[in-house]
Amino acid sequence: MPGPRLPAYLGRYPNTRLRRNRRDDWSRRLVSQTRLSIDDLIWPVFVHELDSPAPVPSMPGVERLSVAGLVEAAGEAAAIGISALAIFPVINLALKTDEAEEAYNPDNLICRAVRAVAKAVPDIGIVCDVALDPFTSHGQDGLVRDGYVVNDKSIEVLVKQSLAQAAAGCNVIAPSDMMDGRVGAIRAALDAAGHDNVRIMAYAAKYASGFYGPFRDAVGSSTSLGKGDKRTYQLDPANSDEALREVALDIAEGADMVMVKPGMPYLDIVHRVKEAFSLPTYAYQVSGEYAMLEGAGIQGWVDGERVMMESLVAFKRAGADGILTYFALRAAKQLKAG
Fold it and tell me: Which residue range(s) make up the domain with 47?
């Protein structure tokens, strides 16, 4: 004797169809969990002493700009809604020394560039990298004694560098050197000098990565560094718990924001940092990441515009509040266009 017949709707398979919400554009937008906006973007830019732009061969589409060109770029960025620029100087070889004295010269290239941008485009934020590698003859982020990058003496110079940049009009000091205790020392010095409103975005979890090569080409530190490396002060790529300890220390010392660098290979670190501390957390899509994506796009191996946007959404999905990316202006234009 046959059993009772089930209602037709119970006999259909499957009952749960996740594709329903993916069927139409409007429903995909309605259920989207992660949103990328222009407000999430910080644009890293290079400035040099020359009057005309110069391409960075290992970073297709990226140029070293004159101070005047930087001001023009800042105006374009502000007009489209980008929140901030991160400015990196290309220092003439003749000005590089073992002790990095040019780093705290109040009339050095970065300070002149900051003053020019702050005057011409007051509505855009200015982020300044604090590290000695653009200014040292050896290419290290700190001072070297007997072949070793020393910590406390390096911090003394980093503090001077930070004060010079803040006096020039920098809004956000971004120590990228990874010396122990530098955030606390910089915060104390800034406050004592009346720069208590200058923020600190700490490169809190910066890894000794192979993805920095094109950047070092762009600022001219790769030749100085030669076969040297930065493993005695930057994080081991194999470690994640150590990153959380570094971030915790920087927060305790007064960091307003923290950063993970590089970006895409370290999305797990971005997620752990945001989950653990709930502090404004940023990721740097570094030069090597840019070069890979852009190079593959130029070759036609990937859809360049699509992977650009997909990579940026991935940072947001991992928990980043914002992204430093060389794609910032292009991405902003795409977001503006809808």
Answer: 35-337
Per the CB < 8 A criterion, the answer to whether 234 and 257 are in contact is: no
In a domain, 191, yes or no: yes
Q: What is the pTM of this model?
A: 0.93
Choose, from 96, 206, 230, 274, the residue flagged as catalytic. 206
Alpha-carbon gap, residue 30 to 108, rounded angstroms: 50
Q: Are 328 and 84 in contact (CB under 8 A)?
A: no
Could you give the CA distance from residue 283 to residue 213 in angstroms, rounded to a whole number? 18
Q: Quickly state the pLDDT bin for 227 (edges 50, 70, 90).
A: confident
Asked about 160 being catalytic, the answer comes back as no
Mean pLDDT (the chain, rounded): 95
For the chain, what percent of residues have pLDDT higher than 70?
Answer: 95
For the chain, what is the domain count? 1
Nearest to 289 by CA among 208, 211, 206: 211
Is residue 3 included in any domain, yes or no?
Answer: no
CATH classification at residue 204: 3.20.20.70
Q: Summarize pLDDT for 245-264 with one digit per residue, the tens.
A: 999 999 999 999 999 999 99
200 phi and psi, to 5 degrees?
Answer: -120, 120
**The one catalytic residue among 230, 261, 274, 316:** 261
Is residue 206 annotated as part of the catalytic site, yes or no?
Answer: yes
